[in-house]
Write a structure and sequence with these properties.
Length: 657
């Protein structure tokens, strides 16, 4: 008996393949600016500065962090923007109490509070502080808590690195302006670290935090080596689900910042680690890279099933192409990280540090997974354990590093030898680029793929501090203008040998119910479900045809059968018994006879396709040849099923004697 599945295919059943939504949430959505201004007392007693909107534990949360000149009781005040009249918050505005402490890097105090229970597709306005001492009012929009979304990834603003804070700020602000204008529906801003040149320089932090986009879009902050030497990073960025245990740090306990943290946004489990700590203790105790691997392993074990994709973020790029590519610590991280990340099913790793753009080949266990994968391929098909590593270039233009030539150290885990298919590149990189212009990375998260683009946010012209101060620039604005694409690839997941089936369940009418067909890997789409008689949803479709070929002289009998598990979306499920089918033979041959129809359990209280059911079979003595088998799928589920995007796997079994 042959079971047409695989470890990765089974994993698809266990993972939350499309996020769920609580019924009753409303719909609309694009990011808002900070166009409202709060009415404040003429005698403000507290000055509020450095407000930044951060990610929460999931899409229903946001964490806001700020500085305060006084140690007073403060909070976030939140209301739907539609309820703000003449800049005044309604009496029923929700409040979220803040906590904080005295600043260690400057005068004053830091505060943070978590906004929770957000509704999807809703415009919100918020302010922080207290009566008589409110900040200006800022606004953001939530999106549908289901389905596709885009996020933007930024490398090393490192404000102050050029020696001119104002020029660096201008470049950083321009990149945020260009990227969000081009992608107004982007839902997250993800950082690659090194926000400032000097960890406790608050003038640099003020410049970094100046752009309004940091109060309009949730930001996921990453700590870099220039951020880690003091508490300012931690005071400006309070992160969710953070473990600040000693093994995730290095340096003086009184000044170190960071820790490892995770959050889930729709279909992505993001894990962010403090890669400044990398040395594994000689006594074998947990610390450095070993501690990070243990942390990532624990998070994936506990929460990997709640998301379709796993994206890891940290600062130090282990597959870059510039000055830091030869660093001993990065070679160590390649040894410490790569096999573990492959084993854990990490899909993508986002990094900074080297101020250059690179995109790796699919890397498995520290080696190129497929030697035939072509440089700069527009479509990549990683197999089980294949990971794509990305390094982002400077988002501000404060500093660039030039690409270095490969050496003779080969293609081992620590090697920096040339790519046999493109000798000017390192063996591990599919794409490398350095034009000395600002850029950012856009990631489109879709049900069946990740689309990765590196996009220019500047040219040789100002604001581009490093070039303004004498660094050469090889960009040609006429042919490579702002908004043009440096690198573009689509990453297709491995779905195994079975057929993955996905269903989107809407709220009771109005609503839509969708399936998707993925021609390259067999994902089946049943279209949009319709509500019937106000009591159930129904969706219909067809399996991808199955070809049977039998050239045996024994003419022994054979059969093809299949079954599905429960449909899953995070912690929501419904039984696979609700799926039925009607098998048929598309092209006769090999004695194929279609199996009997199987009804949805909604119709006959049976077990539907939750138990193995025959698609087709042939008896002893059948003629040799081939057949094409098909089946119409019929899904009927009660309208009490919660809204969500559900998947199961159709496991196909071939049996012959």
């Amino acid at each position: 008996m042959t079971l047409s599945t695989s470890t990765r295919a089974s994993g698809l059943v266990r993972r939350r393949l499309v996020a769920g939504v609580v019924a009753g949430f409303l719909g609309m959505g694009a990011a808002l600016g900070s166009g409202l201004t709060a009415t404040a007392s003429a005698a403000e007693s507290t000055m509020i500065t450095g407000v930044v909107l951060g990610v929460g534990a999931d899409e229903t949360q946001r964490i806001v962090t700020w500085y305060s000149s006084a140690d007073t009781a403060q909070k976030i005040q939140l209301a739907p923007t539609a309820e703000i009249v003449n800049g005044e918050f309604p009496a029923g505005a929700v409040g979220f109490d803040a906590v904080g402490a005295a600043n260690t890097s400057t005068t004053g105090f830091n505060r943070h509070a978590t906004i929770s229970n957000l509704r999807e597709n809703t415009a919100y306005s918020y302010r922080v502080g207290a009566e008589g001492s409110w900040s200006p009012t800022y606004s953001f929009k939530t999106r549908d808590f289901e389905g596709d979304f885009d996020f933007l990834f930024f490398g090393d603003p490192q404000i102050g690195a050029s020696g001119d804070v104002a020029k660096d700020q201008a470049g950083w602000a321009e990149t945020l302006k260009v990227s969000t204008a081009a992608n107004p529906n982007a839902e997250l801003l993800v950082s690659g670290g090194d926000h400032v040149e000097s960890a406790n320089n608050e003038a640099q932090w003020d410049a970094y935090l100046a752009p309004d986009q940091l109060r309009q879009y949730p930001t996921a902050a990453t700590i870099g080596n220039h951020d880690v030497g003091g508490k300012s990073w931690e005071q400006h960025h309070f992160t969710p689900n953070t473990d600040r245990s000693a093994q995730y740090y290095n340096g003086d306990q009184s000044t170190r910042s960071g820790g490892d943290y995770w959050y889930i946004y729709k279909d992505v489990l993001f894990i962010d680690i403090n890669s400044n700590s990398y040395v594994n203790p000689a006594d074998g105790s947990l610390g450095g890279d070993a501690a990070h691997v243990a942390y990532v392993s624990d998070v994936v074990k506990k929460h990997g099933s709640e998301a379709k994709w796993k994206v890891l973020v940290y600062h130090h790029a282990i597959y870059s192409a510039a000055s830091h590519s030869t660093d001993t610590d990065n070679k160590n991280r390649r040894k410490d990280f790569t096999t573990a990340f492959s084993d854990l099913g990490i899909d993508m790793v986002l990094q900074g540090h080297d101020h250059v753009y690179t995109r790796s080949y699919s890397i498995k266990n520290g080696q190129k997974e497929n030697p035939a994968e072509q440089p700069g391929a527009a479509d990549v098909f990683p197999g089980p354990g294949g990971v794509i590593y990305v390094t982002a270039n400077s988002a501000s233009g404060s500093k660039y590093y030039d690409i270095k030539k490969p050496d003779g150290s080969g293609t081992g885990v620590e090697g920096l030898g040339p790519d046999p298919l493109n000798p000017s590149n390192y063996w591990f990189n599919s794409a490398q680029n350095q034009e000395h212009v600002r850029s950012y990375v856009k990631v489109q998260v879709k049900a069946d793929k990740l689309v990765l683009q590196n996009i220019r946010s500047g040219t040789c012209a100002a604001p581009n501090a490093a070039v303004e101060k004498g660094v050469s620039c090889v960009n040609t604005p006429e042919g490579q203008p702002v908004g043009s694409i440096v690198d573009n690839t689509t990453i297709h997941p491995y779905n195994g040998d079975g057929q993955a089936i996905q269903v989107n369940v809407p709220n009771p009418a109005p609503g839509e119910f969708g399936w998707t067909i993925d021609g390259y890997n067999g994902l089946v789409d049943l279209g949009t479900a319709q509500e019937r008689d106000g009591t159930y949803f129904q969706a219909n479709g067809k399996i991808n045809p199955i070809l049977v070929s039998d050239s045996r002289r024994s003419l022994a009998p054979w059969s093809i059968s299949a079954n599905v598990g429960d449909f899953q979306d995070a912690d929501k499920t419904f039984s696979g018994s609700y799926l039925g089918w009607n098998p048929y033979v598309l092209d006769g041959g090999a004695g194929a006879e279609a199996g009997a129809p199987v009804l949805s359990s909604f119709d006959d209280q049976g077990k539907g396709l939750s138990v193995s059911s025959g698609l087709a079979a042939a008896v002893q003595g059948h003629p040799r040849g081939g057949a094409k088998l098909g089946a119409d799928l019929d899904l009927k589920i009660p309208d009490s099923i919660a809204k969500g995007s559900y998947r199961t796997t159709l496991t196909i079994t071939a049996l012959s004697s």
